[in-house]
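B., you asked whether I could sanity-check this one before it goes into the benchmark set. Here's the sequence:
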Amino acid sequence: MEIEIIKVSNKGHLRTFINLTAKIHRNDPHWLPPVYADEWNYFNPAKNKGFNHCETILVLAYHQKKAVGRIMGIIHRSYNQLTSEKTARFSHFECFNIPEAAAALLSYIENWALKLGADMVAGPYGFSDKDPQGFRIEGFDDLPLIDIASNHPYMVTLTLDNGYVPMIDCMTYRFNIDLVLPDIYKRVQQRVINGNRFKMHEFTKKRELKKQIVPVLRLVNQTYGQLYGFYPMDEEEMHDLADRYMPVLDPRFIKTVTHNGELVAFIVGLPNMSKGIQRAKGKLFPFGWYHILKNMRSTSQLDLMLGAIKPEHQGLGLEISMGMLMLESARQAGIKNIETHLILETNTKMRSVVERIDAKMVKRFRVFQKKLYPKTPTVN
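And here's what the prediction gave me:
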């Protein structure tokens, strides 16, 4: 099969790139479309500060003048310098079940990466850990959360067939809020409260959150440094991220902890909006926002999106205290289940917290890698 690769170089190409996944997943009831307004912002260097640190390329695969696949290449120069790597990333890799298209797309990114000095390609992985990462390898009959991969199973096979090997996994866990917590949890929470060292904060109004968002993201910088793929956000990126999520934040599901007036821990939950996004078909206008907000008000699931504890205060029970407060807020809101966002398999501290309460792993995602070797010139 003849495959033509075209570099995305104009708005028409980008429109094809963004809209192609809807065609690939046309008959998939468990596909979660992206929020298309966010997609256009994501691929706009003027609005996505991730482009400031990276070399990037977007390409499309065509067969008989029909787009059949897409892929993005990323070389995060700042991250590579920080970690002494020469790694390129592939992201937003989707195609019909056409081996020739997958091979052509991956080969194009590999050659591009080699020319720019890379010796490894890893993916799917975006600018940062806040982007979808990995291909889903378990949990295909479960609707994904926002900003999580929603690929067909065959994408894993196509990637493996092109010489990639598993690199790292991440999972989501789900549990019923009526679970019976060990008695020690209540004792730990009471100890934290009675100790008077830490102050727990809950919120009722959005305006109370605005001054909290950037300190929360600064704490993320301080605590996520050891996780694969993480690169610290600058202040501008923090404000951009705050602006992106402020419209959907629910004050009831944000808990913070301060010590001597300094933020030392937080947890953020969002009412699940997946069915609303699916019903809106990823479009906010003219009525998409209505479907999304209606779903968030009626959903029985809360998604834990982000959380962190300052290193010197870890192991003191703050995660248990915040979790108990979150459970109570969830019960009052009629929530039945809580699902975590992605947890890396190497993040043993977080995994132990959820596995201790017998939370069920419901989805698994895998990042792949391939070693690159400079091609030896042919001698005639």
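One thing to flag: The radius of gyration is 22 Å. Otherwise nothing jumped out at me.
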